[in-house]
Amino acid sequence: DKAAGKLFLHCSSDQMLHFEDIQDDPALIWTTLESTHVQQLPATCFNAWDDFFTIRKCPDESLSTLIARIEEDMAKIQRLCPQDSSKPYSLPDLDAELVSMAMICALGNNYAQFVSSLILLKSLNKKELKAAFLAEDTQCY
User: Fold this and answer.
1) CA-derived radius of gyration, the chain
2) Low-confidence ranges of the chain (pLDDT < 50)
3) Is the terminal CB of the chain with fewer CB neighbours within 10 Å at N or C?
4) Contact between 26 and 105 (Cβ < 8 Å)
């Protein structure tokens, strides 16, 4: 009851709408809020990885604080990974995701509109990206 009460007290009234019927179950409150706010979309994952790889030590930041920021960002990425127990997220999945990210990051400012359209895709798997790249290449030349 204490945990549910603390969650309830720390949420704004517009957030409480998500768990009005389950006020006495802290685990269910948490998973309900998480499913509402943590969206496993390609753009969200891409941005999380992009943020992760652009972390830099601030001039007045201690190394222990830097490590904590890095670990916090990695935890955010892990929460965004697909949670399908029938097909656990694997190293080949990570490899494919990183290839897709490198393909998008390699594009210059001239491709900003194309990149925006890619982020709207249902998934950023390598096969779909290659097809989109080839289609864009055909249209440009």
Assistant:
1) 19
2) none
3) C
4) no
Q: Locate 15 and state its tokens.
A: 């957030």
69 CB-side CA count, 13 A: 14
Q: Number of C-alpha atoms within 13 angstroms, CB side, residue 75?
A: 6
Residues 21, 23, 25, 26, CA torsion sign: positive
CB atoms within 10 A of CB 129: 20
Using an 8 Å Cβ cutoff, are 93 and 83 in contact? no
Cα–Cα distance, 123 to 42 (Å, whole number): 6
pLDDT of residue 74: 92
Residues in Cβ contact with 81 at an 8 Å cutoff, skipping those fewer than 6 apart:
40, 45, 89, 93
In this prediction, residue 43 carries a pLDDT of: 72
Tokens linked to 94: 């990570």
Tokens 């309830």 belong to 8
